[in-house]
């Protein structure tokens, strides 16, 4: 296995690797994407819940469409 150098920017969850991982399987990629999507959806739901608790009847992103960008 080759040595990989990694760095993490403060406040970020994303690690940046200097070399590609050619052993990554499609199932692993799918699990990573699903986990990240669920985490983002949870953050958005929490933000909307907090806004509702604070009496803010508007969407958190201010778009007026529930955050949807079709």
Give the SSE map.
Elements: E1 6-8, E2 15-17, H1 26-53
Provide a descriptive summary of the structure in words.
There is one protein chain. This protein has 70 residues and is mainly alpha-helical. 40% of the residues lie in helices and 9% in strands. The protein has one helix spanning 26-53; strands at 6-8, 15-17. A two-stranded antiparallel sheet has the order 1-2. The longest helix is centred in the middle third of the chain and has 28 residues, at 26-53. The mean pLDDT is 75.
Comma- or semicolon-separated keywords:
9% strand; mainly alpha; 70 residues
Overall spatial form: elongated
What fraction strand?
5-15%
Radius of gyration: 18 Å
* Mean pLDDT figure: 75
What's the oligomerization state? Answer: single chain
Count of DSSP H/I helices: 1
> Which strand order spans the largest sheet, edge to edge or round the barrel?
1-2
Q: Nutshell version of this structure?
A:
The protein is mainly α and 70 residues long. It has one helix and two strands, in the order ββα. It has one helix at residues 26-53; strands at 6-8, 15-17.
């Amino acid at each position: 296995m080759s040595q990989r150098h990694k760095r993490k920017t403060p406040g970020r969850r994303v690690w940046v690797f200097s070399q590609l991982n050619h052993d990554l399987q499609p199932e692993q990629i799918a699990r990573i994407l699903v986990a990240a999507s669920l985490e983002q959806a949870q953050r958005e739901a929490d933000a909307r819940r907090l806004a509702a608790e604070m009496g803010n009847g508007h969407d958190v992103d201010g778009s007026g469409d529930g955050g949807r960008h079709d």
